[in-house]
Predict the 3D structure of the following.
Amino acid sequence: MAPATVTNLVITVLLIAVAASAQTPPTTSYANHTVGGPAGWFFNSTTNHSATNYSSWAAKQIFNLGDFLIFNTNTNQTVIQTYNETTYQSCTMDDASNNDTFQYSGGSQNFSESLTVEVPLTIEGPNYYYSGASDGVQCQQGMAFEIHVGHGLGLPPSLNQPPPPPYIEPPGPDTAQSPPITVGGAQPPGNGDLRIGVSWVGSLCTLLSLLLCVFP
Ligand SMILES: *[C@@H]1O[C@H](CO)[C@@H](O)[C@H](O)[C@H]1NC(C)=O
Ligand SMILES: *[C@@H]1O[C@H](CO)[C@@H](O)[C@H](O)[C@H]1NC(C)=O
Ligand SMILES: *[C@@H]1O[C@H](CO)[C@@H](O)[C@H](O)[C@H]1NC(C)=O
Ligand SMILES: *[C@@H]1O[C@H](CO)[C@@H](O)[C@H](O)[C@H]1NC(C)=O
Ligand SMILES: *[C@@H]1O[C@H](CO)[C@@H](O)[C@H](O)[C@H]1NC(C)=O
Ligand SMILES: *[C@@H]1O[C@H](CO)[C@@H](O)[C@H](O)[C@H]1NC(C)=O
Ligand SMILES: *[C@@H]1O[C@H](CO)[C@@H](O)[C@H](O)[C@H]1NC(C)=O
Ligand SMILES: *[C@@H]1O[C@H](CO)[C@@H](O)[C@H](O)[C@H]1NC(C)=O
């Protein structure tokens, strides 16, 4: 092969490689974000303020579907997630509807026990987080932040399920007993992709059987 041909070949290969790399979507993977970094999710009662500035922490991160927020905290704190800005601004979940606001809580009812709350990001757009401790005073004093969730890779299969149906207590002999009271849900709603997929398959089946009737 003449040297000029070899050079052309090398240039062509390089051009193809460059073109291919330009078309490759940016490589992203699911990430876990430790809220507040080393400071964790805490209120400092000495300074009467959050342990760190959570808004400026959030501003330095990129959040996508399927990522997790990891709240390293203790049982004195709560984590409330809402998609409703009004609820967020109010620092309370008293008037919140339980379809857009969720309280994550650990199993322990005791104060000061260490607690890790893992919150999956399942809905794109604005997501708001705040603490319900001290009747909203801590939220007003910095225990609150807003994030914007992008699409990224989309939801992984582990999170892309419709939520399980709510537990309904079977009627027993003692029907006068009132059902357990739950404030908000522990589980954010899954997205509806699966159900949309099923109904799409359903329509296709209907279409096929219609065709079979018309053209047996
Ligand atoms: C992120 O946290 C979730 C929930 O604890 C865990 O299942 C997953 O393995 C973690 N992913 C990474 C990359 O650390
Ligand atoms: C609270 O803030 C004060 C003053 O910045 C600091 O000395 C103290 O260590 C903090 N307490 C906690 C529990 O972080
Ligand atoms: C903390 O700050 C809030 C709002 O300024 C105030 O109402 C509250 O009394 C303060 N608490 C303490 C212990 O200083
Ligand atoms: C936290 O940081 C944001 C900027 O990221 C700033 O606007 C805000 O005033 C800060 N809050 C406090 C209480 O310092
Ligand atoms: C947000 O929550 C408030 C109550 O805190 C409610 O009045 C309002 O309708 C909700 N907004 C949306 C868009 O659901
Ligand atoms: C949540 O419930 C309110 C009524 O309480 C309704 O107006 C709203 O559309 C619901 N939002 C979603 C996302 O289902
Ligand atoms: C709360 O603390 C008490 C006393 O230390 C202990 O007996 C109990 O098991 C704790 N409860 C939980 C749910 O951890
Ligand atoms: C947690 O709350 C209890 C009760 O208000 C208080 O005695 C304790 O000092 C708090 N612990 C921390 C680590 O903030």
